[in-house]
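Appendix C reproduces, verbatim, an entry submitted by the partner laboratory led by Prof. M.T., so that reviewers can inspect both the input and the predicted structure.
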Amino acid sequence: MGVGQASNCRVRLKQVRGAPAIAIIGCLSLAVELHNKGNELTLDNLEIFVLDSLSYLISARPTAVNMARAAQELGHFVHQKAKHEETTPESLRESVINWAEALLDKDLEDNKSIGEHGACHLLQQVGQDKVTVLTHCNTGSLATAGYGTALGIIRSLHAMGRLEHVYCTETRPYNQGARLTAYELMYEQVPSTLIVDSMASLAMKEKKISAVIVGADRVVANGDTANKVGTYQLAIAARYHGIPFYVAAPSTSCDLNLEHGRQIIIEERPSQELTDINGLRIAAPGIGVWNPAFDVTPHELITGGIVTELGVFPPAELKAALIRAVNKSLMNLS
């Protein structure tokens, strides 16, 4: 079923997860639709099709801001292109496809910058020859175009020979840590251990954790961060144990339109993700279920900093840094 038809479908299946990957796959799915349609649409109808498809894609996963930002930028790009007299349906179609494909290279470049900035900052802050890190959910190549955000920092530390060990949580109820992060760590031959979510505080106490590094689905203007549910309690535990808590995210995950985390829409997932395992019911029939996919970590608990491709910033300085980067980009274009 194509993107343009999907608005008639009421089922939400988590086929893609990871904020950067959601935006990339969403735009690439639109590119595939346009490729398959050939030249059957007029210029006006093509613009309408693109804008309607982007609107649906935003509604599919509301918490992660990357898809909304990509949709806004691509929508503006299409609108401007369509106004030019020399634009044809074929040239507009090819322009959209090229725009979507360019997201892959940009995301990979940003991830590697995040990895380098985060690794260097962490090593300077903790003053240890080798560090032990705890991470949550999946933030690696399987959640991005490649390399990863929080897992990108871990990969950079490992490449430097400065990583002692990684502890990754299973990340219930969808088990992204057990299914995906553990796989990536083993594939990269990173020394690592899988733990259950409820073991994290004990690990901080007993396993000499140097830092907690997580990803983000949305970072708002004051630094409050929405990420996979369970992140908030990790930040509280890290604060108690005096362990630096880092958020790693590209600038595309930052939403300066929202002032604080209470404004973030939190997606709630089907109850079966919690009550069933591989289709087998494990919970008592009739039990109520509350299954938010994300929680919001207050900015004051992000003690290590927010790591972006632009550098590492205290939450209070993030907004100004992003505005400076945007202004610099606009100056370069002029």
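Residues 89-126 form the longest helix (38 residues). Additional entries are available on request from the coordinating office.
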